[in-house]
Amino acid sequence: MRTVRTVLGDIPPGQLGVTDAHDHLFFRVPALAGQELDSPGAAEAELRTFHELGGRSVAQWTPFGLGRRAADLPAVSRASSVHVVAATGLHQAAHYAPKALDRLRGRAAEFFVSELTQGLRPGDDPDAPPGTARAGMIKVAGGFHALDAHARYVMTAAAQAHHATGAPIGVHHELGTAAPDVLELLCGKLEVPPSSVILGHLNRSPDPRAHRELAASGAFLAFDGPSRANHATDWRLLDCLLALAEAGHIGQLLLGGDTTTAGARAATGGGPGMPYLLHTLRPRIERELGVRAAEAVFVANPARALSAEWIDG
């Protein structure tokens, strides 16, 4: 039976409800120094605002080693009444000190499996005792139009962890690129079913032809980080979604907020934050694509993309 693995336990996919399929409650990288997402109170406030608009679940894509504050996730989930799906995995090598990556060299797959089946490590020590919350997905990352050795290593480990557990894999695509390379590796060579792969940040490369080619693989396509002035997002987003819907791929589309800085939160910063998905984008999608399409994008599709037939033995 398929279930969604949240930080408070496994739930039926039908209980996920309206979902932000790619976001961050806690996040810390050197490139965004001074804008860290590290306040449990601010995370709870953002989730409460999201909940007031009908949001019921958030997939938090922050992987190991980037300040995900795993020990705080169950509490903010309970306090806000929003389901949280947490991630194991690793981001690009540039976001880590070399010594941190060395500690997982040769055992990344084993580590991912342990976080999916036993519990998330509460800090940045991969050898720390696991906490009570388990990961519900694996986060990996490609590079700009290419996959370097680190990306290939992490994706190989993620594929091994998927085959051992059934977990879905979410992929960061740098500026929306290298998705064909990812599919060739993950779904071709490493035999991960496309239905277990979420291709993220495709809005950052708004090429409808390329999107249709990716959709033909059967993978989920995530459009996230709306209303960013430095990306071609909002003014092309609906055209991209409409083109995919007309090509018969409405059942593969996901939307997320991808809030990565404290200033981008709605409840405690300048926004637009998680609520933007529901108070601005959802009404526009309903007008352009129809209510049933919006229901698919925000409810039915995430329930399939984030669920798995878990193997815990």
- Structural class by SSE content: alpha/beta
By CATH, the superfamily comes out as Metal-dependent hydrolases
Q: What percentage of the residues does DSSP assign to strands (E)?
A: 5-15%
Strand order of the largest sheet: 6-7-8-9-10-11
Number of domains: 1
The CATH architecture classification is Alpha-Beta Barrel
The tally of beta strands, per DSSP, is 12
Largest sheet: 6 strands, parallel
Order of helices and strands: EEEHEHEEHHEHEHEHEHEHHE
Number of helices: 10
The helix content is: 25-40%
The CATH topology comes to TIM Barrel
CATH class: Alpha Beta
Mean pLDDT: 95
Protein name: Phosphotriesterase
Keywords: Hydrolase, Metal-binding
Family: Belongs to the metallo-dependent hydrolases superfamily. Phosphotriesterase family.
Pfam family, one: PTE
